[in-house]
Amino acid sequence: MTLVKARTSTRGLTPPAKNASPVPQLDLNAVLGCAYGDYPWDHWHRWAIARGLDEDLAGSGRLLIREAYQHGWEPWLQSLCGWSDDGQTLLAHALRFPKAARRRWDILMRTDGLRGDYRPRSTEWVWAYLRPDAQRLLSTLNPHR
């Protein structure tokens, strides 16, 4: 009896994800050369959705990354907003703790990177003023301040 070795291929057994998107490259120095819809925050947004992040939360993350760049937030805060690791920690946190991520991102956006805030019962944004929730976030993110 002769045994014939069957040819087997594993190709095609695990199809690629339908929404496969490469890991984004968040490079502060490359932003000015980008075209509309092809900015690093756009790449992060598509990648986050492909990795399973809720579309609305991914949209908030996209805005956060963009504002950190466009408004020239402090380097330590830009780093926390994904610019030092291509947004991988930002996505991991959002996937694991979506409510906490949304709250943190909302505070960062409201305060323009912890630079100022709205006083209670006011529509006036005040430079260097932070409400208690923003003060807590600042002390959590950067305890040396």
Question: What is the topological layout?
Answer:
Elements: H1 40-50, H2 55-70, H3 75-83, H4 88-96, H5 98-110, E1 116-118, E2 125-127, H6 132-141
Antiparallel strand pairs: 1-2
Helix pairs in contact: 1-2, 2-3, 2-5, 4-5
Describe this structure as you would to a colleague.
The structure is a single chain. The protein is 47% helix and 4% strand. It has 145 residues and is mainly α. The chain has a domain at 35-113. Strands 1-2 form a two-stranded antiparallel sheet. The N and C termini lie far apart (79 Å).
Q: In which order are the strands of the major sheet placed?
A: 1-2
Reported for the largest beta sheet, the result is:
2 strands, antiparallel
Query: What is the average of the pLDDT values?
Result: 88
- Tally of individual helices: 6
**Helix content range:** 40-55%
How much strand? under 5%
What distinguishing features does this structure have?
single chain; mainly alpha; two-stranded antiparallel ribbon
In short:
The chain is mostly helical and 145 residues long. The protein has helices spanning 40-50, 55-70, 75-83, 88-96, 98-110, 132-141, and strands at 116-118, 125-127.
